[in-house]
Design brief:
The protein has 583 residues and is α/β, with parallel strands linked by helices. The chain is built from 21 helices and 19 strands. Helix 14 links the parallel strand 12 and strand 13. It is globular and about 85 Å long.
Amino acid sequence: MKQFFKTTFACVLGVFIAGTILIWIGVIMTIGIISVSTVPTYKEKNNTILYLNLKGELNERSKENPLSLLYSEKSEMSLGLDDILKAIKTAKDNDNIKGIYIEANGLFAGYASIDEIRQALLDFKKSGKFILAYGDQYLQKEYYLASVADSIFLNPVGMLDFRGLSASPIFYKNTLDKIGVDMQIFRVGTFKSAVEPYTTTHMSPANREQTEVYLHSIWEHVVQGISQARKLSPRQLNACADSLMLFREETRAVQAGLIDALAYRPQMKQKLARMAHADKYEDLTLASVTEIAGLPRKAPSAQDIIAVVYADGEIDTSPNDGINSRKLVAELDKIGQDAAIKGVVLRVNSPGGSAFGSEQLWEAVDRLKQLKPVAVSMGDYAASGGYYLSCGAHRIFADAATLTGSIGIFGMVPDASALLTDKIGLTFDEAKTNRYGNFPAIHRAMTPGEKAMMQAYVERGYDLFVKRCAQGRGKTADDIRKIAEGRVWTGADAVKLGLADQIGTLGDAITWVAGRAHTPDYRRVDYPVKKTIYEELLSELGSYSRTSLEKWILGDRYRPLDILKQIQHLDPVQARAEIGHID
């Protein structure tokens, strides 16, 4: 038997070493391929059309994707809002680019991000160049974006999704009950709904109220935008939404004025050629967002810098993704000491996260604004901790569809005693030197004394959050409490309530900061610096190899390990908003 285990261990070790060697051989080979393949393939040509392929997930920033070299087609599998805005601006000013062709292929994005692109397209139209849009199927957000086009086309057997907005949060209470886990909740704020999935099976009246209010606010904004672009009244548009256009005859969309004409792709090619004044479609060059955004530009001669700092994702929730408060604080401090940087725009797209991390970021922004102008540009979300780090800026810009506010705090401590003891059969004993020596412990429920102290701690965190908002917005704590309680607001309502200063884009925020800094001649620099394609490759392969090894060893037990890893890095006290997917 001893020899059997030795042989088995040797085999496993051999497989592991061989696998590791193969992985690193793959790394070396891939780097070699990249070094040969990353020579620019696109050169500026006449009769070019910017091809805005609405496909995949829209992120705040693009990143180098090593796996894109394996794709044979030009596709924007993971679009960056920064590259899209840059490409549209380049297309507006470049005489070789005759227009923009938008194609709906399944884009996952928030309405505030869609608005940023719409505003850029509306600005592009001032050049007199054309915008055409085509889709086999239009998702609702894609149609909202495409509505700015000069003409919108739909496949003769295609579909148009236009039905109004909804939010459908998922609740875990029944699942947790079945596995024997009770989430012990501590919160401040009637509207702080982030804990509801763990405590109930449906929305509370307060959560339903705030959800319906922000859904109607966003829908009103969307309808108004389409109304202006398509010359249709809000009443007509709502009638179309209530008719469930998705399953109506395609000609109905044309008759309603939502679509200009039905066309197959070959007809669209002919249309594009005519619009670009080319003899035939083959004379055109359809260039992707990445290609146009990557066109060489004249290096700005200005020495002064306006910094755009991205704060994207949850705060201190994951060690690899989202906002790492310690790193971002260090970045902001470094920017504060750079004399060439005259002003800062903090681009915030975050539902919040760690209350502790949010406070560190607030304090860093407060230090920074003593040195230079600081504005916040809000993306799809700047809620809870995302608002916490924003509220101290000199000026806050939001999109009408931004979800913000959610000024509230909560804490969660799991009690897994039913799972561990009743279901699995584990028993626990203890020895300790002091009364609370084994706190916290997931194998038992918290005592009344522990719960009281935890609630008091959460309430102190809420009081500090309210104080920070009051300081940043020039209001009293009582003023903030009236609109706090964890309630989520749209950007449009946030401006009315004084939580934000004005509706505007990232570009508007940059312009304001430059004016506040008295710096009319400047160049923009984005932070943090993006990873190179090599750094992305090594990071992804390193993560992939670790994950693969864990899955191989643990098999079906990998998922519980993954959950435990996430819990390990989760601050028990959160300034975070849980908002159902808006569709």
